[in-house]
Structure formats: structure tokens, C-alpha cells
Amino acid sequence: MMKWKARGVKWEHGYMMIPCEYTTMDEKKVYSIEIKDSSNRRSLNANAYAWVLIGELAKVLRVTREEVYRDAIRQVGTSATLLIDEKKVNDFVKRWGMNGTGWFAEPFNYALGHPGKVVVMVYYGSSTYSSSEMSLLIDHLIFECKEQDIETMNETDLKQMLDAWGN
User: Fold this and answer.
1) Nearest Cα residue to 166 out of 143, 142, 140, 132
2) Is this model's pTM higher than 0.70 or not?
3) Tens-binned pLDDT, residue by residue, of the chain (167 aa)
4) Residue closest to 126 by CA, chosen among 63, 28, 46
């Protein structure tokens, strides 16, 4: 499998011209190519820092890291409200949760005016978060840490880490 980032992609005579380091490709083979914008998602440093904060909170609160993470996502994360057929709710909740730790669904109650439907809140894991969404999550975790007298990163280092998202 070949994977690389490219600049200077252009169209010429109906062909996409992609500058790349590979010069020996079999012209008889059929290749599957995915093209997407390269965006600056949250940095790995930000993700690692979020998990450090989550771990420290879990120790102090005497709960699991997953409980802290899910609570933070519940408080400030990305979510949606769905109406699901009551017979399919349990299966949907189970399957939604298979996406990862931060992916969970919470059935609430029957939807008024929608017989046989249940209101379900679904939460998306932070692996899908934009830089601004991840920043909000980290800000929330920092607030929670300070409430528990847990030391957090100084403002200067935090700002540098957050600024790195834009580069």
C-alpha cells in the first residue's frame, strides 16, 4: 500500500496529475485511490494531555478513566438526538458503542407524538473531534482538575499546544 500527501495536484487533458515519489506503478493494475483535503486535526500531544487529565481525575474521584472520559463527552462533547424504533434501541445502542470508548448512546424515553419511538442521545468519540471541539474538551477537563486541586499545564504551554493545531 502506498500513502502520501501531495501538493500541486492538477488536471491535464482529463487526467489527474499527482506529484509523487513512486515511479514504478504497474499500468495494468487497477488502483483504488482516495483523495481528501488534508486538515489539521487535533494534535497527538493534545490527545495525550487529555488522557493524562482523565487519568488524574479518575484517581482522585476513584472511578475508571472511561467514566471520566464519557462524563466529559456528555458534558461538552458532540452529540445528536435520534428517534429509534423501540424494538431496535438495544441493538442500536450496542452497535453504536462498538465505534470506541467515547461512542455511546443513552435511551431516554418514549417520544411524544411518535408512537413506538424512543428518544436516544448519541455521543461521538473525541477521535472525530475538530481542533476547536478538542480544545473545548481539554478546557473542561482542566476545569474539573482545578476543582479537585489537580495540577494542570501552565497557560503558556497550553497555549503553545493549542496553537500547534493551526500549523
Assistant:
1) 132
2) no
3) 566 666 777 788 777 777 766 566 777 887 777 766 555 445 568 888 999 999 999 999 999 999 999 999 999 999 999 999 999 999 999 999 999 999 999 998 877 777 889 999 999 999 888 888 988 999 999 999 999 999 998 888 777 777 775 44
4) 46
**8 Å CB contact between 117 and 83:** yes
What residues contact residue 129 under an 8 Å CB cut-off, 6+ apart? Answer: 41, 42, 77, 78, 137
Cell of 117: 419511538
Q: Which three cell numbers stand for residue 3?
A: 500513502
Query: Which residues, in sequence order, are CB contacts of 106 under 8 Å at separation 6+?
Result: 93, 120, 121, 123
Question: Of 135, 127, 133, nearest to 162 (Cα)?
Answer: 135
1 burial via Cβ count (<10 Å: 0-12, 13-18, 19+): exposed
Paired strand residues for 85: 117
Pairing, β 117-123 against β 15-17: unpaired
Rounded Cα distance, 33 and 41, in Å = 22
